[in-house]
Design a protein that fits this description.
Radius of gyration: 31 Å
Structural class: mainly alpha
Number of helices: 3
Number of domains: 2
Oligomer: single chain
Length: 114
């Protein structure tokens, strides 16, 4: 073996090793960007198959609904599920009265739509 063949052999092995490392780094970057790779805690998602990358790309962002306000007339505070979908200020109002307020609001809304 001549020195030239030794250098060429070394250069070929070195370049193949560097290509492999570059591919591994690129694969990890793509997987982390898509949320496919890496370990996750808890139960794995049901779509943890090969089509998971396609599912992540095709998924739309969830659009939040409008903020629900307290049904008491004149109140502009947001309603909270903790208080039965009324604001903290009106949490002591009887449910029957709240139901009447909601029905009145619904009737008013239907009347304005027509």
């Amino acid at each position: 073996m001549t020195i030239r063949t030794l250098i060429e052999d070394f250069a070929n092995k070195l370049s193949s090793l560097m290509e492999g490392q570059a591919l591994d780094r690129a694969r990890l970057a793509v997987e982390s960007a898509l949320g496919v790779g890496g370990r996750r805690r808890g139960r794995p998602p049901k779509n943890a198959t090969a089509g998971a990358a396609v599912a992540v790309l095709g998924r739309k962002k969830r659009k939040k609904g409008p903020k629900q306000l307290c049904p008491i007339p004149g109140c502009k505070n947001p309603a909270a599920p903790v208080f039965g979908m009324v604001c903290a200020k009106h949490k002591g109002v009887p449910k029957a009265q709240i139901k009447k307020y909601r029905e009145a609001r619904r009737a008013k809304k239907l009347k304005t739509k027509k």
